[in-house]
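Q: How would the structure tokens look for this protein?
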Amino acid sequence: MAVTKASKNGAVIKAPGLEGIVALDSSLSFIDGSKGELIYVGYEIDDLARNTSFEEVGFLLWNGRLPDKAELANLNESLCAERILPPMVLDILKSCPEDANPMAALRTCVSALAHFDAEADDKSPEANYRKAIRLTARIPTIIAAFDRVRKGLEPIEPLRTGSTAFNFLYMLNGEEPGQAAERTFDACLVLHAEHGLNASTFTGRVIGSTLSDMYSSIVGAIGALKGPLHGGANIEVMKTLLEIDRSGVDPANVVRDKLAASERIMGFGHRVYKTLDPRASILRDMVEAVSDEKGSRKWYDMSIAMMEVMEREKRLYPNVDFFSASVYYMLGIDIDLFTPIFAMSRITGWTAHLLEQWKANRLIRPRAEYVGPRDLKVQPIDSRT
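A: Here is the predicted structure in token form.
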């Protein structure tokens, strides 16, 4: 798709995929791809990932500032109170085929949640804020329940205490996670919470700009994230790591062979970042720490070997998907749940963008440049070939 835009001097600029087109103003995040910089509402991502919780970051994105102690306690209480799913949504999960795509199941259940929310069509800022909290609380429950149901297990009821990270790992695995696992997973959620006007966020804002409801907007965002060019890269990364592990071949040689065969190595390069993704740098440290805690540096060493070849041969750097894959895998999370977990984190950014959109809404309605035929004449149907 080639999109055109008139510049100040009247020239027409083509922008395939809308690249470089500024569609709107936002105070939620800033990305400098050349410097490898990511900021949420004024805070460097490294500072947030190391010194705040996912809940604090959610509050930051929704309110434009970090919470104080009382505000964080109130938010945690609200999130804990909203975790339980309506029984009918659990019934939907139980009726899904065993081989259902987890993102499709999540999309369906989020849509169904609207039927059980009395405020679904209430467009007041207060109601929309409460819906943002409900969605953030319930999406982890949906994902964990789906995984257990497809394995023939009963869903585990969410706890009324604890962080989002702790509760999700508990509902998923049936046992309370250790402190290191909780902290690592919490930081992963922080790193994926917001990233500007990416495909899913833009989709959500376009739907929101029509003054549709929050649930419809989020279902659209989930649908966009389901696409492998947006949300599925870390799945392919882990498949590659497992393939290398099974083969016993040196990871560097595997990468060289794939490059020689013109195969794409997932987890490297980014549409925005031209250097190391700052989120990847943080996750690299986490992979090393979790590896040491588990007593095996296999995945870490393998990843570093791949990274060095890609930097040397292609001048491509890891993105957030590359290291998040092995972090999730070491936490005992099934590969096909990686993208739903992306949604579980990004729900804070998606809803924050919707709250921002609705503060001064304008219908998002770009134009397409027509490149089709002209001057055709309708022929009688009998004479058409």
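The mean pLDDT is 92.

The two ends are 30 Å apart (CA to CA).

Upvote if useful.
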